[in-house]
Design a protein that fits this description.
heterodimer, A: about 240 residues, five-stranded parallel sheet, B: about 350 residues, alpha+beta, Heat Shock Protein 90, 3 domains, five-stranded mixed sheet
């Protein structure tokens, strides 16, 4: 890695902070840390990190408010650490602009994969987000954005317009979890009570057409009650 | 709002039943031309009110109305209240006592039933606490000992020894995670009473998420999925039902004795989604098959092993399924293996009680 990516960790638990810091450093990142929200904001302003890893349960400010404050001035990607039983927190953090989340207790490989995917996604975004002539691949699946085609091992998979739009949207943000409401808004432009069900049925059809079996997790990961994530090759 | 609805419902039932039995009494009087069975019929009415309504107030109110009705319509002087005649007064008082006692008794029986359910929950909680305090000690000893060992003796340990210690920490903390997830599920049920927040979950996604999690731990076991082609949306708390499936799968690995293949089959039968999870292990020992869901049990012929604590996993399954209004059972298969079966209601009826 030529220029080291700078990562800011905001976490009040000393042991988790040390663990994350040690492993990230070992993987070639430059790491700063803060033990609470207000120090976190100061560190953010003085070091301009490329990524923030944020614990939602901070002693001084609500993690959700922290995200809001960061988002007022910056689009720096944020990965949220959250407790397992608080599904609602995850969804609201994502909807407020957090880029991804990792549930406690988490494995370090999982966190590293999220960090890599988030940094890569942000690079695509900063480069203008144009996909002319670009192809997306994960495992043996390829998406040809120019021709709006999805191929597995070179054989075209026939998707409906809506199905293709969903797959395309997920792949552009591959490695990142997109919430149901986010996808629904993007695909149909509006959301009503039945739209999540409509999305789930579409997703089921997509999985069937990609002949993805339950538990296989080759192309698309299901985040139950939250949304979907297109896998990326370096996961 | 809800409280008022219930009160209104109970009052309506009381009034309707009293009127019905009053009507029956009039008919009996008309056709048989006798007053003899009237007090018995009215007493029966009060009984019915006590059984259908909740709380003893309605029974006692019904009893008073019936006494008044008896006095007014069926005792001399007819269609007039008169409590001066001693025999009317006696029958009124006796009837009031009988009906009051019976409605109080019914309420008491009902309270005892509620207490029984409560005490079963209490038992589960006590079992869990016992299992936890008993079982947490072993993995914690490993984790504490190994990590302190590495921190204090790093220079004198070789690489392999450190990896081995770290592996032990990893395994035992994974086991602790499972334990804590089970405990969280139980507090979720007990903490909110019995009300579980159900949302319609697509079966395929539930199975997929659970299996991805399971396969990350046990990649060597073959899991076959047999679910209907049409989409099934089942109202549930997805985290809790995911926990149930996970516990049953892990149980098959830990206690199944050589399980190499697991089949998850789901069918919609009537208004129920029926889940069957079977494995080809050694089955469940006969002496504990009736007890596996009811709480923590100890295998007497085996030395104490920290992993035995997964016994609580199945009682957690039991309470989760019960809290969803479903049921769970287990049976041994021939020639070998066993099958866990549970069902959930497909009706999105959130207002259960």
């Amino acid at each position: 890695m030529s220029a080291k990516h700078k990562i800011l960790i905001v976490e009040d638990e000393k042991n988790i902070r040390n663990l994350v810091k040690t492993i990230l450093k070992a993987n070639g990142y430059q790491v700063f840390d803060a033990t609470n929200g207000s120090t976190g904001i100061i560190m953010f302003n003085s070091h301009c990190p490329d990524l923030i890893i944020l614990d939602l349960g901070l002693p001084d400010v609500d993690g959700i408010d922290f995200i809001k404050e960061i988002r007022m001035e910056s689009q720096t990607p944020i990965i949220v650490l959250s407790a397992r039983h608080k599904e609602g927190d995850k969804v609201s953090a994502l909807d407020l602009g957090a880029n991804d989340y990792v549930t406690k207790p988490f494995g370090m490989e999982e966190l590293l994969a999220r960090v890599r995917a988030t940094l890569r996604n942000n690079l695509i975004k900063e480069s203008g987000g144009e996909f002319k002539g670009v192809k997306f691949t994960v495992d043996n699946l390829t998406i040809d954005y120019d021709k709006r085609r999805v191929l597995i091992d070179g054989t075209e998979i026939h998707l409906t317009q809506t199905e293709y739009n969903i797959v395309e949207y997920l792949s552009i943000h591959s490695g990142r979890v997109l919430t149901y409401s986010d996808i629904v808004k993007k695909i149909w432009g509006f959301s009503d009570s039945g739209s999540i069900k409509k999305l789930q049925v579409n997703m089921a059809n997509i999985r069937k057409k990609l002949s993805e079996k339950p538990g296989e997790n080759r192309y698309i990961t299901n985040e139950l009650g939250v949304g979907y994530r297109m896998n990326s090759d370096d996961d | 709002m809800k409280f008022r609805d219930k009160t209104f419902k109970n009052i309506a039932i009381t009034v309707l039943v009293v009127i019905l039995f009053f009507g029956v009494s009039i008919l009996v009087e008309k056709y048989f031309n006798t007053y003899v069975p009237i007090p018995a019929i009215l007493t029966l009415g009060v009984f019915v009110v006590s059984i259908i309504t909740k709380g003893y107030v309605y029974g006692i109110v019904a009893s008073m109305i019936s006494v008044l009705a008896l006095n007014y319509a069926f005792t001399f002087p007819y269609f007039k209240f008169n409590f001066t005649i001693p025999e009317n007064l006696v029958s009124a008082v006796v009837m009031l006592i009988i009906t009051s006692i019976s409605s109080t008794l019914i309420t008491k029986v009902r309270r005892a039933e509620v207490l029984k359910v409560e005490s079963e929950k209490e038992k589960l909680r006590a079992n869990l606490l016992r299992a936890v305090s008993h079982d947490l000690r072993t993995p914690l000893t490993t984790i504490y000992g190994s990590s302190a060992g590495i921190a204090d003796n790093f220079d004198s340990l070789d690489k392999d020894a450190i990896i081995e210690l770290a592996q032990g920490i990893k395994e035992d903390s994974q086991w602790l995670i499972t334990m804590v997830e089970n405990l969280l599920s139980v507090t979720k049920i007990n903490g909110q009473g019995v009300s579980i927040k159900k949302t319609p979950i697509m079966l395929e996604e539930l199975i997929d998420t659970t299996l991805v999690k399971f396969k990350s731990k046990h990649s060597d076991v073959e899991v076959e999925i047999d679910i209907p082609d049409e989409f099934m949306f089942i109202p549930m708390d997805a985290m809790l039902i995911g926990q149930v499936i996970m516990n049953i799968l892990e149980n098959a690995i830990r206690h199944g004795g050589g399980t190499t293949r697991i089949v998850i089959k789901v069918r919609s039968i009537g208004d129920r989604a029926v889940f069957e999870i079977s494995n080809n292990g050694n089955g469940i020992p006969k002496d504990i098959i009736d007890k596996i869901f009811t709480g923590y049990y100890e295998k007497k012929d085996k030395p104490v092993d920290s992993r035995e604590g997964m016994g609580i996993g199945l009682s957690v399954c039991h309470s989760i399924i019960k809290a969803h209004g479903g049921d769970i059972s287990a049976e041994n298969l021939k020639p070998k293996g066993c099958c866990f079966r549970f069902w959930l209601s497909l009706e999105a009826n959130e207002d259960e009680c």
